[in-house]
Amino acid sequence: MPQSIGKPLRRKEDLRLLTGAGRYSDDVNLPGQAYAYVLRSPHAHARIRSIDTAAARAMPGVLAVLTGADVKTDGLKDIPHTPIPMKPPADILLINRDGTPHGYAPQALLPTDRVRYVGQQVVMVVAETVAAAKEAAERVTVDYDVRKPVAATAEAAKPDAVQLYNDVANVCIDADVGDGEATKAAFARAAHIAKIETWAQRVTGVPLDLRAAIGVYDPASKRHTLHAGSGGVVRQKAELAGILGVPPADVRVECGDVGGNYGTRNAFYPEFALVVWAAKRLGRPVKWTCERTEAFASDYQGRDQVISLELALDDKGRFLAVRGSVICNTGAHSVMYVPLVKCSELLTSVYRVPTAHIRARATLSNTPPTSPYRSAGRPEAMFAIERLIDIAARQFGHDRIVLRRRNLIPPSAQPYANPLGMTYDSGDYGKIMDRVIALADWKNFSKRRRESKRNGKLRGIGLANYIESTSGAPREYAKVDVLPEGRVDVTVGTLSSGQGHETSFAQCVGEWLGVGVDSIRLIQGDTDIVPVGGGSHSARSMRMAGVVMGKASEAVIMKATKIAGHVLEADAADIAFTKGHFTVKGTDRSIGLFEVAHAARERNDLPDDLRGPLAADCDELILIAAFPFGSHVCEVEIDPDTGLTEIVCYTAIDDVGRAINPLILHGQTHGGIAQGVGQALWEHSHYDTASGQLLAGSMMDYAMPRAARLPSFTTELSETLAPGNKLGVRGGGEGGTTPALAVVVNAVVDALSEYGVIHIEMPVTPERVWWAMRQGKTKAA
């Protein structure tokens, strides 16, 4: 069987998905199901005086109208979010500077006291049809006492800001990272200090398929079943059991295909528990499907970090220290603080910085909760430091490339402990930067700029280096089962949401077992089959699944070797395994893997421990993180009359460790770049700061990246094997996004340099560019 690891195979799953044979959450329908509709708050902040459901209950076809009072009566718990999970490998642990515990803002299934953001669920109506449920919801009367909201990130962190909770302060985390005294001393002796104050604005995931869920209850078995797409069913099972107050054994969570995640589906949503609870009350399945405008208002969102950063340099341009502040807007509830952790620990990036100090804060606000969103915290960190380096180069007369090269961490310094608590594993950052500069033809940029000038356009070029930390939930599971009919079933605890696991996982197991990729079936997404597993996030799936699939495959081969010895009447030590066959050394006597599986099930003369299924599993705690890195270059053209920005060239090199399937990895890089460019130029979950109202609640006013507005990307993969996992995988799902914010804005600012523009905020809209040019002219004059 030829080698399959490293081959650019087309994805096995694409035919099924592209021909409509996928099974997404909304495709699940059960006999006798009822339909739920959720009535949501029109206010960002208000006290609930009363809820009158009488008229709604009397509507035709209505089966139930459920409120927070019903939730309390039935004893359901709040969602058990763990905003700072058990310390993941390599990550720092934020500790409040005054020694107090972290604040925690709970999330009720349906509130009884206050609503705290526009779009928060208030009442759930269940009826025979969706139309009947919607019509009844219009008859529900909620008496609100409207209060002043706080929606802006920096404002929410102020001592005199509107408080969302009586017993929880807005600032849930206020921690110091790094060495404050050493950093202060370094700044005191600096020849130059560069500064930036910026905001990585709030965005949302806009997945291809919207959230949907069906709840089922079987009174005979007392089993509660949830069918819903997510980032990992095992976590959802534990959380649902906690909410319902039942043993985990009485809960099943099942998930089919997931049309996009990027982290927005990893945390538990109120509707998931509500449909199961309603199904139990009504004695029939209950289905809920989110609408697109509903998703804009109620999906967990991403980014929203205000960053102030300073860089101290000596007179030769060497970095002495970094200091600053990060404020992460967590929204109305404490879903996850990980973006703050990741941003705070990586703000010095791939540069040799002797000392640093960051004040890290997480604050509540009258907006939907935020959670980790593709490369959580890392794009924000790279944006701040890469913009700051460009600012320093311009202010103090350095070449942007030379300044970076002078301060890069050399390979000889690896593993390298950065001053914010992280230790990188390995990597030649300068080699990658030099390669992307050559690939992007940086040396001839001035010619292209002159040509753009002749065409009435402004042209700019930008560079951004990056590093990210991929850790994630440390426990993962796999089972490998060889079936006599010529198939291998691989069961995994992680969960694909479009990454191509059915192909790349099969490439690994296929090579190890010496069987064809098409003979391998991936099984995932059902807690009745998968006992443990961390799901898909933080570029963990291939890295961690590779470890457990590898060990399970080795155990299968070891067992099969013993069986082959019995069948071939030879000592197991004399059996060699290669390319799917077991051969007696020095002879032509052999038996194939699937024949061994048949023998294990059918032969009665085998020892008891070798009879039965030819299978093995592995459940392992993997505590070694990995650190993907790379460099991107972007070129833009700007129309000076309108401010319209067009990306004309984009070049990327990403070190992913071992590239299991380069074709899939290039696709993930392309998607990641589009996602990052989308935030840099267009996307913004825009909230009015005075009212807390969402101003980007549809596809008409939330600007998504489109293929026609992007060039063909030039991408390369670098493979520096990561220590700590069988395959040497670092992770490839997030590298496209991580530097994209910075490299696009660096290019835009370079194009506007003749106007004296030093910085521009995201999204870089034509209006912002137009005003920046005119304000720059005014300052210059």
Quick overview:
The chain has 20 helices and 28 strands. The protein has 781 residues and is an alpha+beta fold. Helix 10 (338-345) packs parallel to helix 11.
Write the SSE topology:
Layout: H1 14-18, E1 34-40, E2 46-52, H2 54-57, E3 62-66, H3 68-73, E4 114-115, E5 121-127, H4 130-137, E6 141-146, H5 153-156, E7 171-178, H6 180-188, E8 192-203, E9 212-218, E10 223-228, H7 233-244, E11 251-254, H8 270-282, E12 286-289, H9 292-298, E13 302-313, E14 319-331, H10 338-345, E15 355-364, H11 378-396, H12 400-407, E16 416-417, E17 423-424, H13 429-439, H14 445-454, E18 458-467, E19 475-483, E20 487-492, H15 501-513, E21 520-523, H16 541-568, E22 575-578, E23 581-584, E24 590-592, H17 593-602, E25 614-621, E26 629-638, E27 645-655, H18 662-681, E28 714-718, H19 740-751, H20 766-780
Parallel strand pairs: 1-12, 10-11, 14-15, 20-21, 27-28
Antiparallel strand pairs: 1-5, 2-4, 2-6, 3-5, 7-15, 8-13, 9-10, 9-12, 13-14, 16-17, 18-26, 19-20, 19-25, 22-23, 23-24, 26-27
Descriptive overview:
The chain contains 20 helices and 28 strands. It is an alpha+beta fold. The model has no long low-confidence stretch (mean pLDDT 96).
